[in-house]
Amino acid sequence: MLDDLDTDVSRAFERACSAISRANASLTDADFEYFDEIESRNACGVIEYVDALVWHKDLLARRGHDYDPNVRARVEKGAQVTAAEYAGVLERRKELIGIFDRATRPFDALILPTVSIIAPTIEHCERDESNVRSKLLRNPSLFNFLDRPAITIPIHQPGDAPVGLMVVGERHQDWHLLGIAQALEALFYRQHHGYTLV
Question: Are residues 130 and 178 in the same domain?
């Protein structure tokens, strides 16, 4: 989740972590080795492709020419996923949700950059759509896969390119997550507007 951060995102994330620590919150590095498995198997993509094809199949048949070619190509990937592969990913997802639930129980929330890069230009997206899309979706997609509520809070300095801090909560604990996010938002607001914490 912290690999290949661009400089703006890395600096903003470090500042946010420092501010949270100064507010007497306890931060702990955590390593979940199965994140690599999810990414290497493209588990999020397998589910996304099949579900998208089911939803779009009739519309594609009638109005496929109206789709952006990149979007259409991703949707049509669903036809290449076998039933066994799809069922296997769903089964493994269920197992990993349980493992992740147990692993994160001691924490109030997980924090990480929402995306690894600042907003790219239209030209950059057009030149390298697949790579840009992958960077933008990597972190949020993982927590969709693990069935977790998450919220993003702006953490960039005024005038800088926007950077978000993703705060991930426990399943079925949305209100608790919103309370944590509200406290963090107030902390960053005070930091950016020159207030000191008491």
Answer: yes
Is residue 88 packed enough to be buried (19+ CB in 10 Å), middle (13-18) or exposed (0-12)?
A: middle
- Rounded Cα distance, 61 and 65, in Å: 9
Domain range for 50 is 31-106
Is 20 a member of any domain? yes
For β-strands 164-168 and 110-113, DSSP reports them as antiparallel
User: What CA–CA distance (Å, rounded) separates 198 from 174?
Assistant: 28
Same domain assignment for residues 92 and 130 = no
28/118 Cα distance (integer angstroms): 25
Looking at the structure, tell me whether residues 149 and 53 fall in a common domain: no
- Comparing 3-12, 44-53, 122-131, 147-156, which segment has the lowest mean pLDDT? 122-131
What pLDDT shows up at residue 193? Answer: 62
User: What tokens were used for 126?
Assistant: 């057009």
Question: Residue 198 domain-assigned?
Answer: no
Report whether 75 contacts 56 (CB < 8 A): yes
Same-domain pairing of 50 and 2: no
Q: Looking at the domain assignment, is residue 188 inside a domain?
A: yes
Q: What integer pLDDT is reported at residue 196 of this predicted model?
A: 47
pTM for this model (two decimals)? 0.85
Using an 8 Å Cβ cutoff, are 136 and 190 in contact?
no
| pLDDT range class, residue 111, cuts 50, 70, 90 | very high
- In this structure, are residues 152 and 180 in contact, taking their beta carbons and an 8 Å threshold? no
